[in-house]
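[Meeting: bench + compute handoff]

Bench side (C.D.) handed over the final construct sequence. Compute side (W.E.) agreed to return the predicted structure before the next meeting so the bench team could plan truncations. Sequence as handed over:
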Amino acid sequence: MSGMIKTIAWACAILLVGCGAVTEPVGIGDERVFDTHREVDLRWQSRDGTKLVGTLLLPLGDGPFPAVIAHFGSGKWSRPGVGPFVQRAWVDRGWGLLIYDKRGVGESDGSCCNLNGSGSIELMSMDVAAGVRMLRDVPYVDASRVGMYGYSQGGWVLPLAAVLLGDVAFTVVGSGAAVSVGEEVLFSKLTGDDQCRPTELSAAEIARRMSEAEPSGFDPRDALRAMSNPGFWFFGGRDTSNPVNATIATLETMRDQHRREYSWVVFETANHEMIPNGEMCQGHGPRVAYWDSIFDWIDTQFGW
């Protein structure tokens, strides 16, 4: 985005004077080395002046390593909420993983997390885009191999962040909707996911009502049309939060009509949290082996 000021890690303490309530210098902070990995604290500033705080997890060694920034689901996500299985999945494969406190959570400034509030998705997309720029300035990171990984709400946030950046390597999204917020909310009500209690509506009736729904609230379709980088999605076939069929129909349109490099895979027995044969709203338990599909796609796409 032409009007966006790039955050330069080594000089941003000067650049950001008078731009907000930043109480500590923005840039690369403390570093810790463990037996299995390295951690580097990062602080960056979003386009609206909000300060974000994160931790970059890295393999041991000098690198430079490929890396991703992660954005997870709705709610007050912070670094301690990111499960060790996510951290191991990236770092053990030789990748850096930047996790951060969502705005208004933990050490990050701002206000969290009114999904239907004016500009909420747009603000979070700016946060992620600024985080990618920060990530590229870390000496351990290969700036040419930086992507984005998201889950659930990330399906709305990451495509818009990709458009703001224009040059991010790739986008990977799990259980994220490619339909509007209003359509996803309606689907959750029709299935009963919003109350974690199934309704009596048949799958056919839910599909009929969804086919009659109009987009409302934030709609990612414009961003998905404009996103120039390759994208990969993975879904659970028993997801009662995200309308998977409608989402895939959107992705097919983008791929076939707008020539976007979009791919996806569906794990038919998995729920929204990718738990095989999981119940509605069940968030804990062994996941299907979706990590292999992600890294197989990256390897096929880029040969990294």
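W.E. noted at the follow-up: The two ends are 27 Å apart (CA to CA). C.D. will use this when planning the next construct.
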